[in-house]
Amino acid sequence: MSRDQSLATQDRFGAEVVNKGDIDALDELVAADFVDHDPAPDQGPGLAGFKDFWTTFRAAFPDLSVAVDHLVADNENIALAYRATGTQDGPFMGIKPTGKAIDVRGMQIARFSDGRMVERWGSSDQLAILQQIGAVPPMG
Fold it and tell me: CA dihedral in degrees (123, 38, 42, 56; nearest 10)?
């Protein structure tokens, strides 16, 4: 797989799934035996678990927008730093909608094969999300 193919898949993932909420696009972009090495709490395995996560997250933050701050890529892997913004207008991790905005950073490394994401490692600032929606008091 070429670097350009990996970047095209990553670009579609960001534009269609993350920013527009087209969860069905995951069927074309992510392998059926996908492995998420850093799943969200209660995220099930494989493509089905990843789809469930994005369905739930987009319902909680329907105006979610993710922008890439920095990206490094080779033929199989893409590493990126991103900034996510949105408003909690749906339930999130048992927390009723607050109408509060989030602005958090995260990082992800993904491996691609045959035009699909096959593995993911990542970290989002989940504590900042919880603090910004008022579920956890700010530290310090």
Answer: 50
